[in-house]
Design the sequence.
């Protein structure tokens, strides 16, 4: 793992950093393929949107691009970018003006789980997602709900867990967005109450729109997911990952997964 | 400001720390008065409870006490203690076993806001608190809601902001618990959906129970707060802080504030 903290190789983080103290920050996980960060414009666009939502000063996208390029190694790696509101006096009140802090790290591309190539085996998490429209969609650093959801299984049998919000609507997996094929059309949960609006979710929606069948965003219940003819997970690393099993019940893998992956390889 | 990171004076924090990456940690803010951390047993008890809720390994309370003693300076200071799930591989999945990280910092006691001695002027925050029973009451590091609530005013007129949850129930102030006197009795919001169960809240409840009039925890609406005969904020630093104004309307200061402060000075 290589890391730049405010541009400094191998740097460490101030214990007063607001990202650490309050989760007052944002992050992006970016796939580098053939030496190129995939969908970098969209990652930076989402990050800028999150910065606006949290009231951060405008980010220096050119500097972030340079640091991402500097940290990238080999043809294939994972880059994680964290931007926090920096350090400041004690207390929740954000310093004005704030001076943001950048943490840019690169990891080896992980070996895919052996059984996962054929599709993901998923189940329902007990942990719910709290609703807060003010934070919905933003990839911020308050991720305890996902951490506790991911702690629910460690059995080598389940690959991902699906999460509902406090009202019982289905939102996503712990680290992926969710698509369901209902009546021959892909639908995905609305993310206006909670959840993270993933860059690969955007890519899948863009691809479907190109195909002339735009994805519908709507409120989805567990029963909708359980009755879907196919399910699909998306995230920046996996691209589209078909679900092959839901709570032990087989789910057919849809041909769109392969077609989207082929499209992804071209963009 | 003095700081110990895992016992190391002036230490910095690993960029992979899970507290920074996910808010995967807990904190305590402790008032040191006459060289003695006030309610330290209760702070450590709440911390241990939170560690249990998040699935941390058991904390070494004796070590934490030694580090708090080592960082304390002068007769009067503020100690902030952060415990995170430490560092680990990339991803939400908690490492097992986890090795927790300790950050213990001490600050000068802050000058009280000039106008605040006479009581707090409070208003309603627009920011809501998401509900999640799995995290309710725990003083964890996911505090973006409080940060954004605290960012709502900077006018020198409002001292604190009151927050409701997504369902409209009143929960607390941004950095204090709330008590309301209704029909001659103190009541305080239930914290089974969200909010932080403060140590000074516990102290105020203990004092009231000693007086033979236990505080009732219940669901409270804005109208309850607006019709209360007195309002009181509690936190570890301020003790009991009477509210003297709600949205510009004067609120009488109750004599119990002074009596509780006198009791506090004795314990």
Sequence:
């Amino acid at each position: 793992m290589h890391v730049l903290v405010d541009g400094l190789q191998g740097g460490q983080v101030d214990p007063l950093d607001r990202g650490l103290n309050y989760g007052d920050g944002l992050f992006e996980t970016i796939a580098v393929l053939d030496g190129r960060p995939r969908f970098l414009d969209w990652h930076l666009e989402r990050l800028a949107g999150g910065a606006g939502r949290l009231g951060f000063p405008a980010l220096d996208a050119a500097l972030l691009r340079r640091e991402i390029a500097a940290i990238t190694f080999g043809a294939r790696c994972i880059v994680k970018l964290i931007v926090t509101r920096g350090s400041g006096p004690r207390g929740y009140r954000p310093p004005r003006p704030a001076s943001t802090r950048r943490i840019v790290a690169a990891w080896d591309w992980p070996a895919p789980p052996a059984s996962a190539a054929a599709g993901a085996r998923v189940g329902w998490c007990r942990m719910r997602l709290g609703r807060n429209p003010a934070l919905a969609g933003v990839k911020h650093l308050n991720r305890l709900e996902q951490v506790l959801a991911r702690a629910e299984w460690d059995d080598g049998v389940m690959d991902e867990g699906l999460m509902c919000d406090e009202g019982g609507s289905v939102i996503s997996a712990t680290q992926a967005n969710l698509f369901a094929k209902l009546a021959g059309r892909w639908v995905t949960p609305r993310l206006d109450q909670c959840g993270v609006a993933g860059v690969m979710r955007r890519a899948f929606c863009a691809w479907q729109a190109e195909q002339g069948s735009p994805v519908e965003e709507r409120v989805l219940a567990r029963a909708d997911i359980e009755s879907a003819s196919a399910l699909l997970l998306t995230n920046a690393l996996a691209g589209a990952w078909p679900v092959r099993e839901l709570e032990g019940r087989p789910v057919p893998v849809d041909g769109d997964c392969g077609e989207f992956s082929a499209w992804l390889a071209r963009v």
